[in-house]
Amino acid sequence: MQKLVVSMMLLMALVACNNRPSGVIDESDMTDILTEMHTLDGVLVAKGLQYGNNDAKQQYYDYILKKYDVSRAEFDTSLVWYTKNPKKFVFIYDDVLERLSTLENEVRSNKYHPIDSIELAKRNDDVWNKDRKYHFSEDSVRTRLNFEIKNPTFLLGDVYELKFLQRIAPADSSKNPQVVLRINYANGKKDSVYAISHNDSLLRRFTLRLPALRRLKIKSISGDLLGSKVYKGKFNAELDSIVLLRHYNTRYQDSLKKVVEKHDSKKYLIPAKEKKDSINKLELSVKEKLLNGK
Q1: Inter-axis angle of helices 86-108 and 72-83, nearest 10
Q2: By C-alpha distance, which of 151, 271, 273 is closest to 217?
Q3: Average pLDDT in the chain
Q4: CB contact at 8 A, 248 and 158
Q5: How far is it between the farthest Cα atoms of the chain?
Q6: Closest CA to 238 of 150, 164, 130
Q7: Which of 39, 89, 181, 217 has the most C-beta neighbours closer than 10 Å?
């Protein structure tokens, strides 16, 4: 009888510890899904796709859910339940962080992409040639803060990374402020990424990455550090630590230059009838690589 009572108590304890309702993803699968989603976050950032078409990016996350035979509604419901049960959620995220840390260490140790002599030739140049900081008070003339940088060596295969600190005060008259980075090609075509800003006095660090994918000559790199739909009224904003990095491989420059020179200026990596920036095409290519396990 004592053994039976002990067994019943243990069974009740197990039921109490595992009170996950039907329809909520179990902890093991939730850990796997969240790990893959955070890994995908890193891929999108590395490819410069963290901003822009949210519908296109959602397809990547939906693919992860499909892999585990989980619907978007089931995932959202599970996420809400785990947030209401923080002890279980902390246990899951401890495991997620441990896996991501292990993956980061493996990447840093070149487990997946061993460094060769070509990789060692990569360079990161800061091509920003304007002021590193700006301060605009109410006495400043209200305008947009845009820039354009020209360099005859800009080329297909480059990745451009704009980084800076920004603070916009509530007194600033900007409406729907945003930050934009563009690649301007010699034939008038453009590729761009953007990030939403806010006039709430918070100091934010922005990082925008944009790869040059078209086999066309690059006229310049431009953008808006303080873009807005309104360019009148009060001005109250500041920017600091502005850099524009160009990531490229020195040993590829000659061969890439020949590709651009031979390419017909009327042909593009995307169809001529496409009116949008090629960033949409880039997102599709990343999806295809993810589906193929590359």
Answers
A1: 110
A2: 151
A3: 81
A4: yes
A5: 89
A6: 164
A7: 181
Q: What is the mean pLDDT of residues 138-142?
A: 75
User: Strand, helix or coil at 213?
Assistant: coil
* Tokens 């925008």 -> residue: 208
Please give the Cα distance from 203 to 239 (Å, whole number).
9
CA–CA distance, 235 with 241 (Å, rounded to integer):
20
Cα 57 to Cα 51: distance, rounded to the nearest angstrom: 9
3-state secondary structure of 86: helix
Cα–Cα distance for residue pair 150/146, rounded to 1 Å: 14
| Token pair recorded at residue 52 | 């822009």
State the amino acid at position 207 in one-letter form. Answer: T
**Residue 21 per-residue DSSP state:** P
**What number of other Cβ atoms are within 10 A of residue 164's Cβ?**
21
The Cα–Cα gap between 252 and 155 comes to 10
Residue 280 pLDDT more than 70?
no
Class for the domain spanning 123-269: mainly beta
Q: Residue 93: which of 159, 45, 181, 32 has the closest Cα?
A: 32
H/E/C letters for each residue in 249-293?
Answer: EHHHHHHHHHHHHHCCCCCCCCCCCCCCCCHHHHHHHHHHHHHCC
Three-state DSSP at 190 gives strand
d(CA 250, CA 153): 11
Q: pTM for the whole thing?
A: 0.55
What integer is the mean pLDDT of 88-109?
Answer: 89
Please tell me the predicted confidence (pLDDT) of residue 281: 45
Structure token digits, residue 242: 């502005």
Among 34, 39, 50, CA closest to 82: 34
Place of tokens 């994918």: 213
Residue ranges covered by each domain of the chain: 2-108, 123-269
What does the H/E/C string look like for 34-51? Answer: HHHHHHHHHHHHHCCCCC
